[in-house]
Amino acid sequence: MHIPALLAGPIIRRTEHNRVCIWVATNDDYDINADFYQINTQRKTAYKPIKTDTQTETMKLGKKLYIHLISVTPLGRNFPSGTLIGYNLNFFNNAQTFDLGTLGLLDAQNPHSIVYGDLELPSFFIDQDNEKRNTVLYGSCRKPHSEGDDALVSADVQTEETHINMEKRPSALFLLGDQIYADDIPDPLASFIFDLSKEMVGEEELGLLDNRLKLDPFVSSIDLIHGRQFIVNHFAKFTSNHAANHLMQLGEYSIMYLLSFSPDLWEVADDYGIYHSFEYKYEKEKLYFVYPDRDCYREEYKKEYEQFRARYINQLKQIYRFQENLYRVRRLLANTPTYMIFDDHDITDDWNLTIDWKNNVSESPLGRHIVANGLGAYWAFQGWGNDPDAFNKGFKIKMQKHFNQLDPQSPSYDDYVDILWDFDRWHFVTPTSPKAIFLDTRTMRGYDPSPKPTKIGSLIEENIRSPQLINETGWEKMTDALQKANWNRGDHLLVISPTPLYGIGLIESVLHNYVYPLRVLGVSVQSMLDFEAWKYNEQGYHAFLRWLENLEPRNCFILSGDVHYASSVHATVAFPNQTNLNIYQFTSSPMSNMSFTGFWGFLMQKVVWLNALKRKKITIHRHCNEDGHLVYEGKDQACPSNFLWRENIQYLSMDNGAIIETDNNIGLLEWNHSIVQHKLLQYYEVYKHEKFFEALELD
User: For residue 18, which phi and psi values (nearest 5 degrees)?
Assistant: First the structure.
């Protein structure tokens, strides 16, 4: 199998006045040098070389997978701001030499080119450190077998349309979680990922972690399509209901990232035969069936076969559509400074959802291993480029020692697992204008062990509590990170929270009041649905607002994803000490994972639309009473004098009159002096489409 030299990238990562980081993945070790040019957009041939120094760090993840983080610094003055900077990369080793042009990526006639318009090079620009004009893209939740078209493609179209206009061109792309779905791998891709993982990275002997994996049927089912559900649920102690092809090995996570970021490996996948029919995979015995093909199970086997076949055919159509436009996604990433944070599906569904989940998985050698591999791959493909200085030499040495061996019995293995489970600096602050702090709402959670009284009809039981998405120590670390990044009280602030602080209240309330209590009846709803809105833990919700109160930003913009809908909310929060917060909650989700489908999706949509009619053009008043409970105000419920805080909430409408969008979308946020415009970009029928929320005038 021919593995291309360039596997993914280039991706522009952290971009500062004195350093630019570029990420690439290759099939071999290379020395890499970068050439930078200042582009005069008024003269097509004006590419003025910028004197720079290039330092490249390389991590070998396996036999044929190398991750490079290229740090380019200017010699002399800082990089110019407010102007386009073009770049090329040169690759050298004993076997070959090539650059981006050699690969055809700079040829405007090549549909896989990573340049825009008449430019000769991929480009980006650095903010001018003012808060008057800026444009940011953001979104979350992207899987290859979703219904609908990939909205991330519309972000490429937007950048193409504005590529020489730096007042309109996006200066950054924020990816807010679920960049991959490790727990929900489409059937047509599963065998390819499992096999290529072994060839490119190497095989981990999972039987050393759990002896049951050496026995039938698990020794064979683990490498078959649809063969991992039982293993993941019962051995690793995960709770996902879609874990039939769950990623487990470091190489599997890595291959999924490569397939999500770049078109290069899809050509290999095509040669491998991922588009083969279900019948072909069946004849080659690549499929695992719960019911064996025996006379006593004939009806069950036949039903499973037909369900399996229908799912396979549907997913095959979806992944074919997904990969068609990946060259546009690569171009966007090659031209836009990109910052990424994880959510649950980057590792596994329900990751740290409850203290029981965390304890059960931590005590399972296989579960602990899979989470570590998910985090190791996240670091290599996402986290490293967000803030390279957050990962010291000791961290990288421990990572590389394990990557070199991939042996659960080696001395380096425990160091690898422990450092990833215990790491506490996944959060970071971007060098954008305004600055943005990315919250880690997964590994900094707080859990209250005290029971919560729950009543369903005449049944009264004690229930578990939802977690605080960030604990007290976590908030202290967030404040410290902002101070170190020279954010000042009174500045605008972007807060990147994977799940929104202000969601659609009806959805959250229905889940919290009517579905979540079903746990007392033994229904495992916490692992069937996401109960991770900030409001589900009142103490955590209060902590978020108190943190903002102490910061006193001029305006706070919270960007979120996760919930598979898009909305805009404006809230003003008043505290007894006369501090007032102006909060704008912008939510965009999913980029490619429409979940409001089928009967229940249709029903939820209709209920939400009806509820939206009531909320349009009105202000919702609520307060936190002295007992810490959230109270909605009305004719019979006024705000007492001893409130802890009080807030007024308005749901903003789009140009079509709706307050919610559930189809695939990506958010675009534009600042123009005192005006802020929130848009949604969508891609279908080979065109970009826009929806506008009400424009906001800042104080």
Answer: -115, 10
Count other Cβ atoms within 10 Å, centred on residue 555.
18
- Distance of alpha carbon 364 from alpha carbon 362, whole angstroms: 5
Please say whether the beta carbons of 511 and 531 come within 8 A: yes
What whole-number distance in Å separates Cα of residue 593 and Cα of residue 172? 22
Can you state the angle between helices 298-324 and 326-335, rounded to 10 degrees?
A: 50
Q: Quick one: pLDDT at residue 515?
A: 45
Give the integer Cα–Cα distance in Å for 599 and 611.
Answer: 18
Question: Beta strands 31-39 and 666-672: pairing type?
Answer: unpaired
Report how far residue 435's alpha carbon sits from residue 348's, in angstroms, rounded to the nearest whole number: 30
Per residue in 442-453, pLDDT (tens digit) is 999 999 866 666
Tokens for 590, please give them: 């999913």
Residues 155-188: tens digit of each pLDDT: 999 999 999 999 899 999 999 999 999 999 999 9
Buried b vs exposed e over 297-313: b needs ≥16 C-beta within 10 Å?
A: eeeebeebbeebbebbe
Query: What does the pLDDT look like over 363-414, one tens digit per residue?
Result: 999 999 999 999 999 999 999 999 999 999 999 999 999 999 999 999 999 9
Q: Which two tokens stand for residue 522?
A: 């033994």
CA–CA separation, 583 and 693 (whole Å)? 16
Element (H, E) at 133: strand 133-139
Q: Which amino acid is at 109?
A: Q
- Distance (Å, whole) CA 362 – CA 26: 33
Spatial distance between the Cα atoms of 262 and 447, rounded to a whole number of angstroms: 38
* CB under 8 A, 24+ apart: contacts of 526-531: 526/239, 526/350, 526/353, 526/354, 526/464, 527/239, 527/240, 527/241, 527/349, 527/350, 527/353, 527/357, 528/241, 530/344, 530/499, 530/562, 530/563, 531/353, 531/466
Q: Which tokens hold the place of 238?
A: 């995960």
Largest CA distance in the chain: 79
Residues 427-457 as b/e (b if ≥16 CB within 10 A, e otherwise) read bbbbbbbbbbbbbbbbbbbbbeeeeeebeee
Determine the Cα–Cα distance for residues 698 and 446; give it in Å rounded to an integer. Answer: 34
Secondary structure (3-state) at 547 = helix
Q: Strand 493-496 to strand 436-438: parallel, antiparallel, or no bridges (unpaired)?
A: parallel
Evaluated on CA atoms 332, 333, 337, 343, the torsion sign reads: positive
Helix (H) or strand (E) holding 303, with range, is helix 298-324
- Please tell me the distance from the alpha carbon of residue 150 to that of residue 146, in angstroms, as a whole number: 8
Give the burial class of 57: count Cβ atoms within 10 A of its Cβ; 0-12 exposed, 13-18 middle, 19 or more buried.
middle
